[in-house]
Write a structure and sequence with these properties.
Layout lengths: L5 H13 L5 H11 L6 E2 L7 H11 L3 E2 L11 H15 L2 E7 L3 E3 L1 H14 L3 E3 L9 H4 L25 E5 H10 L10 H11 L4 E3 L15 E3 L8 E2 L12 E2 L36 E5 L29 H6 L18 H8 L5 H6 L3 E7 L4 E12 L2 E8 L5 E3 L18 E5 L2 H9 L5 E3 L23 H5 L1 H4 L4 E5 L4 H14 L4 E3 L10 H6 L6 H7 L2 H9 L2 E2 L12 H8 L27 E5 L6 H16 L3 E5 L4 H13 L17 H14 E3 L10 H15 L3 E5 L14 H19 L2 E5 L23 H5 L2 E7 L10 E9 L8 E8 L4 E4 L4
Parallel strand pairs: 1-2, 5-7, 16-17, 16-18, 18-19, 21-25, 21-26, 22-23, 22-24, 24-25
Antiparallel strand pairs: 3-6, 3-11, 4-8, 9-10, 12-13, 13-14, 14-15, 19-20, 26-27, 27-28, 28-29
């Protein structure tokens, strides 16, 4: 609310020149297009100012008058607030009442997005609930302007009232307070304390949204920003993707009277026309409201759940019952509630000694907090690196000066600096927060740091261990930003873990758009420089020892991974030497788990294996057994598109192979004892981590493009190493009329091979043979596959699975694995082996193994 004395008039003028509707027609248009109603709210002014009020209303639009002889003074602010609520309840039906100080700049386009998010999650009392010290002198001193005798109400509970300059109240609660006839007797200037007390008394849940904080040391200017009206001001706030802008630039009109209305961004101008449904009520520059929406009204994607009192478990909204029953409900990530303060001189010196300026530190919102130190077994001050996504704080990473690290337990993992990269076509990924800050000093703003550093160095000839696969969940959580980047520069550390991290990031993000920074090594320097120690490990070390210009030069000289479609032999020198030194055994593949088969066939990432055999020969069973071996021995995970099996039955068969016991006490189990419930539980947990099912739930058949799209997502989200497509004839094979089946199969297999090579994923593709005439029980060959000879021509490996059906030829449990094609001679050769199929468990064993 604003007073009407002359000293406040310039505030209203500057608001109208920048963000507030400038006249009555603009107010009406905003209300019609967005459902927002904005008003300056005033109490009873002196009689001598009535004519000035009328003139200003005629020129700039109506005020919202608060009757009742409530004067605009600090001493009456709480009473004036309740009187305003009575006016709102009498004349409007609103979902939200939003209070904004008249010395604030508000981004209405960003506010429109936030309102939709609040509606989607059912947020009620919304504001910046940062922790404050209620024992501070300004609240206790009777002579102070903001003295309030009721501050003790929130002793130890201070975060339950929002900061006064900008907060949001639920309209229905305001109606209830007014209808209750409650008389507020608190008095005093601090209507924010009074409001928080009432919300607590009415059991209204609070939602801590730091986008509403205007102070620099909190989370500035994402939606609202406080300016100094005494002179022209230019402020660049934190970057954010809320509303689609990278930064907020505010230039209010100052003493010069320059017209700044060109900077005004209204919701309708930013693509939010009709976003909030039918017109309702909204007042700003004083208080504001947002209209209620029908249950079916659309809103943007849900944000975080409000804190405080929880909503009923069945009142979350969204999703069908079938969808909810399909998978287990996972607990939402923890929301950080830090108690941050500005960096001390000692903490700031930590950054300046490492080449990071205070301006860069403050722009990234870095502060400090007292945290428990496991090293020292006491609370110590730690640096707090805030992790934001779309302006929302989702995690905080802490670092002590002696390099003890921690994060908010169970918080969502995202990249540090993510909002700096919203909409960026080029993104730089580094290994630590200090490297991100160093690159910003060197002139690079679109930089992010991984939250957990690098995984351990990969052992010689080994693939990444399975426990490291979970460390890349942040890529999936940040995919909306990463997917927009056409060029990703990997500037991870130059040591072995850093290079392992770069390789895994390139594999998951796609090598075709990745570039890499090479840090100086002693081998690359001349002898004199080498003796001086010019080897550098990371960006922060470069800026500390060599300066900003050298760091900028090294990043600008990043090399591609490599140039797509055009290569020099030197681009592969590292891979060739690594292969020669047997440091990379992927070319030779990994063991199948069967000693008799390994000399002929080993599994190589990036290859395509075609598997065929007559019906009921056990092709799918053998592949499932192979995958279980790889999961148990190598920690691999897989995506499986098996259209002929129900998910329940497929999981049961995999479970039997892993537990090595039958699922049922049925005839097929023989003398084997059925698996115990504890084994089922443990086995299901193991399966859930390693096998991911691709299901097409519509009536139509899935296309190969659909399968590969989902598999790409599985690489990013789960780091899968293998893909099964079983079988070919269960895919949708619509093709243009002029295209032959041979041409179609060739193009399809080319897509699959490119996927395998691009993402280092081994693909098993099951294809049935055509109907064999006069078949006498012999195994088919690869050219018998129905559809095209390209199944054998394009494959890296061709395998025939054949089960003996004639007791005269041997055991009926005997299975032949005939390797009929091997392109990579380092991984195998043409040959065959015998396996014994154990029907009770579904496992295969080397023939002759007891």
């Amino acid at each position: 609310m604003t007073g009407f004395e002359t000293k406040y008039r310039h505030r209203r003028q500057q608001a109208r020149q920048t963000w507030f509707p400038s006249d009555a027609p603009e107010m009406a248009r905003l209300q019609e297009e967005t459902g927002m109603v904005l008003r300056f709210a005033i109490g009873d002014p002196p009689a001598e100012l009535e004519q000035d009020i009328l003139q200003e209303e005629e020129a700039s639009g109506p005020f919202l008058r608060i009757p009742g002889k409530v004067r605009d003074t600090y001493k009456t602010l709480t009473f004036k607030t309740v009187a305003f609520w009575e006016v709102v309840a009498q004349h409007f039906s609103v979902q939200y009442v939003i209070k904004v100080d008249d010395d604030s700049y508000v981004r209405l386009d960003r506010l429109a997005i936030a309102i939709g998010q609040w509606q989607a999650i059912g947020a009620e009392y919304i504001g910046c609930f940062k922790v404050r010290d209620n024992s501070e002198n300004r609240l206790r001193l009777r002579t102070h302007r903001w003295y309030d005798p009721h501050h003790e109400l929130f002793e130890g509970d201070a975060s339950f009232y929002a900061e006064g300059p900008f907060y949001v109240l639920p309209g229905p609660t305001i109606d209830g307070i007014v209808r209750s006839g409650l008389t507020v007797r608190m008095g005093g200037p601090n209507e924010d304390i009074m409001t928080g007390w009432l919300m607590k008394a009415f059991n209204v849940s609070h939602y801590d949204d730091r986008r509403l904080c205007y102070k620099r040391f909190c989370d500035p200017a994402l939606i609202a920003f406080q300016w100094d009206h005494s002179a022209s001001v230019h402020t660049t706030a934190r970057s954010t993707s809320v509303g689609g802008d990278a930064a907020l630039s505010v230039s209010p009109a100052g003493a010069s009277g320059t017209d700044q209305r060109r900077d005004k961004v209204l919701p309708s101008q930013a693509g939010f026309k009709g976003h909030l449904g039918q017109p309702g009520s909204f007042a700003a520059g004083g208080l504001a409201g947002v209209p209620r929406m029908d249950d079916g009204a659309a809103a943007p994607g849900p944000g975080p759940e409000p804190s405080g009192r929880q909503r009923p478990a069945g009142d979350r909204g969204g999703g069908s019952a079938r969808g909810k029953a399909r998978g287990k409900q996972q607990a939402p990530p923890a929301k950080p509630r830090p108690r941050l303060v500005r960096l001390s001189d000692e903490m700031m010196a930590f950054f300046t000694n490492r080449g990071i300026s205070p301006a860069v530190v403050e722009r990234n919102g870095i502060q400090q907090e007292k945290r428990w130190s496991h090293k020292r077994e006491r609370y110590v001050d730690m640096i707090a690196f805030p992790y934001y996504r779309n302006g929302e704080l989702v995690n905080v990473k802490y670092r002590s000066l002696d390099k003890e690290f921690s994060q908010v337990p169970k918080a969502e993992k995202v990249l540090f600096g993510l909002d700096d990269c919203a909409g960026a076509s080029e993104i730089i990924i580094v290994e630590g927060e200090m490297d991100k800050l160093a690159l910003e000093e060197a002139g690079f703003r679109h930089v992010v740091s991984v939250p957990d550093g690098a995984p351990p160095s990969v052992r010689e000839g080994a693939l990444p261990p399975p426990e490291e696969e979970t460390k890349f969940a942040y890529l999936w959580n940040c995919r909306a930003v990463l997917d927009q980047a056409a060029r990703i520069i990997l500037a991870t550390d130059g040591d072995a873990p850093g290079q392992a991290l770069a390789e895994e990031l390139a594999r998951r993000l796609g090598r075709d758009r990745c570039w890499r920074v090479r840090w100086p090594t002693a081998d690359e320097a001349d002898e004199q420089q080498s003796q001086a120690g010019t080897a550098r490990k990371d960006a922060n070390e470069v800026i500390m020892k060599d300066g900003r210009e050298e760091l900028h030069r090294l990043v600008a000289a990043a090399e591609p991974y490599p140039i797509r479609g055009l290569f020099k032999i030197s681009d592969f020198f590292e891979d060739i030497w690594a292969s020669y030194a047997e440091q990379d055994s992927q070319e030779q593949g990994v063991s199948t788990g069967w000693k008799g088969l390994d000399p002929f066939y080993r599994v190589v990432p990036g290859e395509l294996s075609i598997v065929t055999g007559v019906p009921n020969s056990g092709k799918s069973e053998w592949i499932d057994a192979l995958l279980c071996n790889l999961a148990e021995q190598c920690g691999w995970s897989f995506a499986m598109c098996s259209m002929e099996k129900k998910a329940r039955d497929h999981a049961r068969q995999l479970l039997e192979k892993h537990v090595r016991k039958p699922f049922f006490a049925a005839q097929y189990a023989g003398n084997f004892q059925r698996m115990e419930p504890e084994a089922v539980q443990a086995g299901l947990s193991w399966l859930d981590q390693r096998f991911h099912l691709i299901r097409y739930e519509d009536d139509e058949l899935p296309s190969v493009d659909f399968v590969l799209d989902i598999a790409r997502a599985a690489v990013l989200r789960y780091g899968i190493r293998g893909l099964v497509i079983d079988p070919y004839n269960e895919l949708d094979h619509q093709r243009p009329p002029q295209m032959t089946e041979t041409e179609y199969v060739s193009q399809m297999l080319t897509k699959i091979k490119r996927f395998a090579q691009h993402y280092d994923v081994h693909v098993w593709f099951v294809a049935h043979p055509r109907q064999l005439r006069d078949w006498k029980g012999d195994p088919p060959n690869l050219y018998d596959i129905s559809g095209s000879a390209h199944f054998i021509n394009k494959a890296d490996n061709g395998i025939v699975i054949h089960r003996n059906r004639d007791p005269a030829r041997g055991s009926l449990s005997q299975v032949q694995v005939l390797v009929r094609k091997v392109r990579n001679k380092a991984a195998g050769t043409i040959g065959e082996c015998l396996l014994e199929y154990r029907r009770a468990t579904g496992r295969y064993e080397d023939a002759g193994q007891s």
